[in-house]
Amino acid sequence: MKNNTIKAGTIIGLSSILICLDSLLKINLGSFHLQLGVATILLASPLIFLSLKSEPTTLDATYFVLLIYICLNFPFAINKDVFLTGLSYVLIFTILYKTIGRVSRFINWERVSTFALLTLIITGFFQYSLINIFDHQLELRGIDASYYQHKGNLGYRMRGFFLEPNWFGLTLFSWSFLFIYKKASFSTIDFLILLLTAVCIYLSENRLIYILYLYIITMFFFSKRAESLSKLVPVLSVSVAIFIYILLSISGLDLTDRSAAARTYTMAQTWNVWIESSLIEKIFGYGFSNWGYYSNLWELSWSNYRFDQALTRRDNAEIYVFLFEMGLASIILFMVDLFFIGKKSKKPILPIFISSIYISSFFYPIFNFLFYLIPMMVVRHEILKKNQ
Asked: TM spans, by residue (predicted)?
């Protein structure tokens, strides 16, 4: 049993670090690219479950209700292939999530998070130096330098071996949280790693990451001062954030930032469609995987004015895509989830971190990226296990 746990823990730990190399290790599967670290966990998962079958299982009820809800949308999918592509991302996340949960307690996450951060820092400075010192754009996954042309300073921001800086920043954020959470004490080297992490986030120019750090720190201290409300902080903060996001979008606020303007425009368009929808469509939406079809048909996004987007595209943020595809029911499910983990957790900081990932969905299309966020899976299992 001991040898099995060591082997399983080593596989998951090494795979987690490989995921930080992102596009350097992508496998082309035709309809999408599968990262080698992700593929390794998928292949190892049956053996891990068999070898550790005596390990207690953790039930994540709200997540599996959402999974069932997504599957029930199959009859309403306009394009079944698009639905199955979207579902494949959900299933990959589910397998990784359950596999990591089965073996998590045997893994030294403090050590893994240290190596993950070092990998991101080294690759970040390598890529940043290539473009800003040697004027050479790192080309990965078959995407050449032209991808970054006419996109402002996108190609000059730190992104490591990720295709875009936003994903690099979100990965840095999640691993840095786990790194800090798992540390019993901090050495000089640890502080240096955190300093370099902060420099990398600055050079990647991810404003959202600053907001997420500020949110976590503020809500953590609020939870300490108002313990009676601490378990409600995640659901209340995300609910308020959704309200403000929708309000700003439909107010027609003129934003100078092009990305922010594109998101608020699409949110406003989606809101108008939702308001005019039938009661059934308001509650259950237009069907999972159907955003691409309807956004092209009704020109919901700025991108649709230039040309039709791929049917699998989920636009620039997840919140309005979920509202459109799976209605108010999906938003309620997410709020129930935040309430549940807030109530379950004995450590307020953990559900606050989970809620920060929810907030990131207002700004990034994270649906197809969730299985990169290993720290989020670790934290959810930390919350749900019987003895925290």
From this structure: 32-52, 58-75, 82-100, 112-131, 161-180, 186-203, 232-253, 319-341, 353-379
* Single-letter amino acid code for the residue at 41: I
**Using an 8 Å Cβ cutoff, are 73 and 83 in contact?**
yes
| 111 vs 17: CA distance, rounded Å | 11
Question: Residue 293 has what pLDDT?
Answer: 93
Give CA–CA dist 254/166, Å, rounded. 23
Nearest to 313 by CA among 32, 74, 63, 35: 32
pLDDT in tens, 26-50: 988 776 789 999 999 999 999 888 8
Sole residue written with tokens 């992102």 = 22
CA triple 211-123-157, angle to 5 deg: 50
What number of other Cβ atoms are within 10 A of residue 30's Cβ?
A: 5
Tokens of 345: 């957790």
Instruction: Return all residues near 313 (Cβ < 8 A) that are at least 6 apart.
Output: 291, 292, 295, 303
- pTM of model > 0.90: yes
